[in-house]
Amino acid sequence: MMSLISLLLLASLLPHLTFTARVNVGIVNGTEAKPHSRPYMVSLQLTKTHICGGFLISDEFVLTAAHCWNGSQILTVVIGAHDLRNSKNSDRIGVKSYIPHPSYIIYLSWNDIMLLRVTIFSLNNYVEWISLPKKGEDVEVNTLCSVAGWGQLWTDGPKSDRLMEANVHIMNNRECHKRWQETFSVSQMMCTHGHGGSCIGDSGGPLVCGNTAVGVTTFGYKLLCNSPEKPNVYIKISLYIPWINSIIRNVK
After folding, report:
1. What share of the chain is helix, strand, coil (3-state, %, to 5)?
2. In this prediction, what percent of the chain has a pLDDT beyond 90?
């Protein structure tokens, strides 16, 4: 009798156990990043809730997507984090100024890139910036790259507390344009395909190839994260190097 009760109890718990496992092990077919292996990653937060990713590119600036800010919100930036529930090794810093690209077009996601000037922070084993590409530099098709973030673990699912990552490959821009039609700007954007990929909440995070951030996560198919038919799209950073450099120089 006791064994039957135990089996019934286990059966009643299985749905909850499965849900917990899914939360802990996957972000759209990704894996948990090694803690602090991506010290450039930041969490953009509104009222202490993660809304977007971003990444450190200097001792005063974060690069992210322009759509992560509505023009009036007061965001904070969490640096040095892996598990957002654990403040050990992480710091919450303020934003001094929000600098979206002057030609950002909301409804098209064109020029969806933004600089945040943040309060001074110290570099350490958990906090470091990442390199950017040279002006006009392209990434070869099929290059193995990666994305990371604290976004949703699956379509309409919960966001991850721990930093997740996935490998992706660069797609041919003509194929990207074919899939997205006029939504995709061949000159401004690039896209990827892979078993894993970004979801809601990963916007603003970097597309990293080697040790260089080559793209800013901008959009994907809203009905299905990491859709094989509608690949994830990124703003091509190399196009914006002159603009980025001009902003940084002006505050020195």
Report:
1. 20, 35, 45
2. 80
Of 90, 109, 146, 203, the active-site residue reads: 203
In the chain the domains, ranked by start, together with CATH numbers, are 41-129+241-247 (2.40.10.10), 130-238 (2.40.10.10)
Does the pTM surpass 0.85? The reply is yes
* Known catalytic membership, residue 67: yes
Strands 206-209 and 144-149: antiparallel
**DSSP conformation letters of 75-109:** -EEEES-SBTT--TT-EEEEEEEEEE-TT-BTTTT
Q: Which of 67, 82, 101, 193 is catalytic?
A: 67
Q: Which of 36, 43, 112, 160 is catalytic?
A: 112
Residue 150 phi/psi, 5-degree rounding, is -110, 25
- Residue 238's identity, in one-letter code, is S
Q: Give the model confidence (pLDDT) of 217-232 as tens digits.
A: 999 998 899 898 999 9
2's enclosing H/E stretch is helix 2-25
CB 76 within 8 A of CB 147: no
| Catalytic residue status for 97 | no
Quick check: is 112 catalytic?
yes
Q: Which amino acid is at 200?
A: I
Q: How many Cα atoms are found within 13 Å in the side-chain-facing hemisphere of 129?
A: 12
The candidate with the shortest Cα–Cα distance to 58, out of 83, 79, 35, 81, is 79
Say if CB 172 and CB 179 are below 8 A apart. Answer: no
- The number of C-alpha atoms within 13 Å of 45 and in the hemisphere containing its C-beta is 20
